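Our preliminary data section would be incomplete without showing what the modeling component actually yields. Below, a chain of 338 amino acids is followed by its predicted structure, encoded as tokens that our downstream tools consume directly.
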Amino acid sequence: MASPVRSTTTKKKFTRHASKSPKRNQSPSRIQPDISFESEEFAYSDPMDSSRSLMQNVVFKRHDRGSLSPQATQLFNSQTTFEDEAERSWLLENIRSTTISIKVDQTVVTINGNYAFRENQPCVLFLHGFGSTRNWANWIKLAYPLSQRNQYSVIFVDLPGFGQSSGRNLDQTSWKRYGPEILIAILSSFHLRHSASVVAQCGGAATTVRTINRYPQWFRDRGLVFSNSVIGDFGESKVGGFENNLTKFNIHIVVYWIPDQDHAKHCVAYKRWNKLRLAGFRNLQLIDLDPATQTLKQFYPVIHVVNISRCSSKNEAYVYKLSDEFIQQVINILDRKS
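Predicted structure:
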């Protein structure tokens, strides 16, 4: 796989050292990672012109495991969730586990990920929401149908503070400012030469919105799927900038909304999406789902997977139980057939 053209400037060795202050009792999740970026690569803001859009303040280093992680192996062997032997075998044979170290300015994070990737295939990044049961496994039931029906590459990650990625437990305030750069570094680590789609829930969708406002080239001509994209700060330089980016870069988003106590219809995001719907805005579609009949709040029985998540749910894997109808809707959106 070809790598983007590197900068010709002399590279420095960036090392993140632990504080020398008196030791405190900290959980491993609260300790900053000690990472040396000896052979770092720069993220890039435009996949169509990677050599001329290198981001000097965002470096990464991807390290693929020699084998599937114990968590992914244990998850994929669940015959309750993966009843189809063909699906189970495909996951075990084709998904790869990886760790992506990212440095944005002086902030360092390590991202846990799992993927099935082929060069020149369209690519989908899956992002979870915020909560103790949220991690890369939530959307995994989309991996096999997307690969088989439409030959998509798929990337599943734990955002900082979730799953096995670094960061304070379930905390997004420490990395929210750099969320767009972290997403771009994740995508850049796969050396993509084309834009990407995103399927995201709640906080993952909010991070994607802010990324579109900073780096819309990464989603040019793509279809994206959001579920309950609660967001107060759109990260716009001026009001209406988000809609302008969707139009200018031909980005289409479908937002599914299932009201509950955390995702009420009087929130800022829903009001904005609904206003766009009423105005007939063509690049964003809001779809209200009935909580009594929809499937996005349904999970398979909890799977015991050691250390897959955080806090009280650290040994519990939650996988969305998606209907065949919804899976086909997602495929149609990604294919821009909706």
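The two ends are 33 Å apart (CA to CA). The chain has one domain: 28-334. Preliminary results of this kind motivate Aim 1 of the renewal.
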